[in-house]
């Protein structure tokens, strides 16, 4: 099954480990076979791994981008998911943790990454609410 990427001018993405950048116009690429593709917005740099959810996302991202080396990231991921699951009671996010784990075990790294993205988004939402409560910015 082909994958169609619609790219904004200048948008970057990783394709099988190579960083590729679109030119100065919108572009469309159609990948005819299986490849590891990650858009710039979904790429996390090591220095951005500063929260528990990001410590889940990053090793999954590395597994996806470096599938041949995925095993070296597994122990870190298992530890971080266990820690996160022990710290939250939100059933939907616990389900996303389980989903990410199952996808990793099935070597469905992109699906695991999308589950991990939801965990990061949840954490950001909770941290923003907590930050607002501490600073008194919440209207109420």
Automatic annotation (TrEMBL):
Task: Name the Gene Ontology biological process terms.
Answer: bacterial-type flagellum organization; mRNA catabolic process; negative regulation of bacterial-type flagellum assembly
Superkingdom of this protein's organism: Bacteria
Spell out where the chain crosses the membrane.
none
Keywords attached to this entry: Bacterial flagellum biogenesis, Cell projection, Cilium, Flagellum, Repressor, RNA-binding
* GO MF annotation list: mRNA 5'-UTR binding
What InterPro entries has UniProt attached to this entry? Flagellum_FlbT
NCBIfam families for the chain: PRK00794.1-1
Q: What is this protein called?
A: Flagellar protein FlbT
Its source organism is: Brevundimonas mediterranea
